[in-house]
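Sample intake — DYW domain-containing protein
Collected from: Plasmodiophora brassicae
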Amino acid sequence: MPVRAGALARVGLRRLSEAPPGARRSLPSSAYDAFVRAPSVPGAVRVLKADPDPHRGWSAFQHVLHAYGLKPRIPFYQAMMMFCRDHMPGKAPDVLRAAVDRGIAVNDTLFCTFGSACRLVDPPLCRDVVDLYARCGPRSHNVIACVATICRIAKQPALALPLVDDAIGNNVGFSEMLTSTFAVCCAEAQTSTGANVAQTLLGLMRSGRVPAFPDNQAIYGNLIKALLSQGRPGAAVDVLSLMDDLGLPPSFITCTNLLSSLVASGRLSHAMVVFDRMLGFSVPVDGRTFVTLIGACKRALDATSLRRLYDHARRGDPALWRDDFVVCSFVSAFDACDDVGTAESIFQTRSNVSVPTAPIFNAMMTAYIRERDGDPRDYLSKGMSLFEAMVAGNVPVDKRALSALVSACRRGSDIAPVKRLHEYARATASLLDDEFVLSAFISAYADCNDVNAAEDVFKTVSATSERICNAMMAAYTRHSRYDAALHVLKTLREPLSMETLTTALSLYCKAGHLSEAIDLFDTMMVNGIPVAKHVFTELVGAGADIATLKRLEAYSSAAGLLQDDRVRSATISAYSRCDSLTDAVRVFACAPGAGVAAFNAMIAAYARHGSPDRAAHCFDDMQAGGVRPNDVTLGALLTSCSRSGNVAQASALIADFENTWQISPSSVETCTTAVSLLSKAGCVRDAMSIFDRMMQRGYRVDVALFRGLVAACKRSADVPAIRRLHVCAKARDLIQDDGVAGSLISAYGHCGHLEDAESVFQTQSAAGVVVFTAMIAVYAHHGLMDRASSCFAAMKSGGVLPSVVTLGALLTGCNHVGDVDLAHAFLSEFETAWNIRPGPITTTCLIDLYGRAGDLDRAEQLAEAGTRNGMALMPLLSACRKHGDLERAERVFAALRRLPVDEAEPHLAAAHVQMANMYTAAGRSGDADRVRQQMVAAGFKKIQGRTTLHLQDRSVNFVAGDPTFMSDPLFKSQHDKVLKRLFRHGYSPDTAVVTSKATASARQAVCEHSEKIAIVYALHALPAREPIRLTKNLRVCADCHAATKMLSALYDREIYMRDANRYHRFSKGKCSCADYW
């Protein structure tokens, strides 16, 4: 049905409104007028070709589409598509859809013209092209190439990837242009599909389906990019093999781009394969690429690959070796791989040519001063030498290198190089304008214990930055000058950086300003500023109360911090310090997977609260959970043993840790605890071994620990160890401490080295009461009462006030020489002058003095007047035996047995032996047997006499009739010779000291007392005239005392014997005790 003119006009106006905005409307043309008068397809084509006006063109097109009887064919649509391309490209999809809707078979020319029009739109009509290609596009080379190109131009390369399968499926030939377009789309798509298509194309090239295109290596480069973007480095490297197989050696650009891409993605092993292929293809490696590869080796710490590059540069390509960037990179990389020797060799080789550039110097300096194993002072020395070489060669030291060198001086704690570097920086003004350099100097001076110099640097800064202020605050904090640090903090203007807020929070914690710390913590929480774990740990450990701890625990739990072992450990310890073991246990159990720090804190908490069994169980759980203990674990367990008094277990723990985990006490805390416990256990050798380790590490020694160790050496009579401690005390300036000097004097005196004790005493510039008392006690125990009195007189003249211990030492001396009158004089003087009366120990000494002097009545009265205890009654019982007062002895013995068990038990065995011996001596064998039976029934055992011979390298123990020695024929012969010599000079065994044997066996028993066996051994083990030093655990018997006096004269030997009561010095047939002991 024909369309009326009015309708045509309306349709034209409606369609023209769809023309591109801003299109200019022109005046009516003659072609258009003719078409309106007589519409036809040829007339419309003439309008499209002659009239550029989009409105009239579009009106003519619409008229043809809707006019009755007009049947346009493909030339009409081609003409309209060309009109769209030239004047209204946005309408091209509508034109093609109209053609398809009307059954037109789209050919290459029409679709490609359509594609050309769509390309001109901004942005290109990519989606329309792809959709219409799928609907009607010919599967030809030109059409596929057109669609792929539009997808790429529209930055939607992924839409072009399915076209590869279309091309393959329709046997389309792959031209260079089409292949290149596909390769670019694969690279730009950056999808796994793109990588898959790239591999498909490479397979087609290998099979010959797609030509190799030898002059277009960009194709291969793009395919390589596609593979690398999806993490397929192996396939990317294989592209080089494919190119080689195709007779197409890869170009420098292809190899370099591939290698650089591999390095950038951290695929060093594949990059090294490409490097080897480049060498095989004779493709040159430029310096820039080579430096990139060296840097990759450095980042990966791949020393093997780095060495291969080094060998190539040294032997294969001298040009690389002349590139200073390459040299600098090698020095830095070998430093990172911890091969300073090779870095030095490279630097020296370069230095032999000419003065190295500043970057090379700085790289070598960085290598020297980087923190590594070994003595930091060795590398610092080399770094400073390099610095001086730079100065001498007028090579500027940059800010970064100078900061690093100054920081290295901090580790060496050597202030001299810091001052030298500071001098250089002052001469180069720009260096001291840098906040990193200034911060480094402040920190270095502080670490070298010159905080005043750090202050001076800080004061020279005209405009302080937060970094500089943080360094100064850290310096003050390190030296516990918290007020000064807080003053610096107040000078900073808000808002403060997260770093400064963190420093401030740490400072408040260390300064004990808990309320300010909590306020700042709350502020940080409100502002969403996270708290570093180590600072939060300090906050938890700052001594908060339970309520605050609960708040902090809630925060750490919500923030996930409580999963951190250090935070959990600090929380456990904080609750423990607040005496809330229940909360500590709850925090420990709140999450699985506790680490060593949490276990250590829990063990320490149990130890603190007196639960050694729970501490041990916690340690068992730690081992069962596969958590390896450390030195802190050992320290916590040792502390538990110390609090419970289980010294034996402590010794076993130290051995177990050493054998099982090769862990020895290492921290100062653990070493201190271990030495203290081992000293108490009498394990002097082990204690000294750990102490020596502390000295080697420069640990500060606690005076109490030192005194305890000296006391342990004293008990074991280890003179060499005492001498080592004496040397250490002098080296560490401990010798002037009253307690240390007093312990050394006592130890030397206890071991019979009177001269050494006097030497320590004489070195004291201002001896106090402890030192004087120790020297008086040594003289007293040696029976040298005149020297003890002189020392006491010197003490008084020096204005040193005595103590009750001093009185006890003087009374002990009076006791050993039997001078009752002098004892009374001392008692009177002490009470009158200093109001010092006898204490329990002093009273015991007086009882012994009166008893040995024969004044048993006074001794018994004194024992009854004071607090009756075993220490007071035993000397009285011994005096009764000495003077044969059996009746009094029975009263004393009965009183002793009436004492509480814990008070009497240590003395009952010896008391039973003495009573049995007294009954035997009085001829009352029945009573003697009764006492011995009581002793057996009660489970008391007679203390076996033991004599210890102290040699230079060891101590040897002897007992009466010792089978170890007396069964040896050679020793028995030596023993007999000594006895015969004694007999020839009038010695006769005193069998009175043996009460339970017949006369013949008694003589033999006396001759085989442990003292005599020890002396016989010493006479043959020690050089002639070497003093013999002995220790007896009981009082020496009268027979051995007499025999020892004779032996000292016969063999011209000084024999020192310390028995349970006093010291004896035998020389030339006499004893220092004057036979009063």
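Post-analysis note: Confidence is low (pLDDT under 50) at residues 1-27.
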